[in-house]
Amino acid sequence: SMTAKKAANKELKGMMKTVRIEDIDSMHDEMMDLMDASNEIQETLGRSYNVPDDIDEEQLMGELDALEADMDFESNSVPSYLQPDKETDLDSELNLPAAPSGHATIPANRQQEDELGLPTVPHASIPP
User: Fold this and answer.
1) How big is the CA angle at 126 (ends 124 and 128), to the nearest 5 degrees?
2) What whole-number distance in Å separates Cα of residue 66 and Cα of residue 86?
3) Its GO biological process terms (predicted)?
4) Which of 2, 38, 107, 109 has the most other CB atoms within 10 Å of its CB?
5) How far apart are CA 99 and CA 93, in angstroms?
6) pLDDT by residue (tens digit) across 80-124?
7) Are 103 and 96 in contact (CB under 8 A)?
8) DSSP string covering the chain, please?
């Protein structure tokens, strides 16, 4: 058991050589700074904005009910933006010309285009 104590003592002394008090103090100071910053953030986030601490929920619900009554709030009424569209004849409202029918003819002075809208490559005629 004496050898175990000596071994433990030697290990502790070895550890104490690697640990410096300045490092511990520095780390402790950093931790305190972080804790202060954290507390400041928590305090800021928890700040109230002129909301009284003693809010009476029943009174608040009563005010809400009164507001709903003032607005003539009925559960069966549907807001205008949720009502189905009226069947309107958009074509007559917009007064657009009729769509053309058939294929458009390509003017003679205009180059032919392929399916991608690019000019077609003229085919070279090779004499026999």
Assistant:
1) 165
2) 33
3) late endosome to vacuole transport via multivesicular body sorting pathway; vesicle budding from membrane
4) 38
5) 16
6) 667 776 666 665 667 777 777 777 666 666 667 888 888 887 777
7) no
8) -HHHHHHHHHHHHHHHHH--HHHHHHHHHHHHHHHHHHHHHHHHHT---S--SS--HHHHHHHHHHHHHHTT--TT---GGGSPPP---HHHHHTPPPPP-SPPPPPTTSPPB-TTSPBPPPPPPPP-
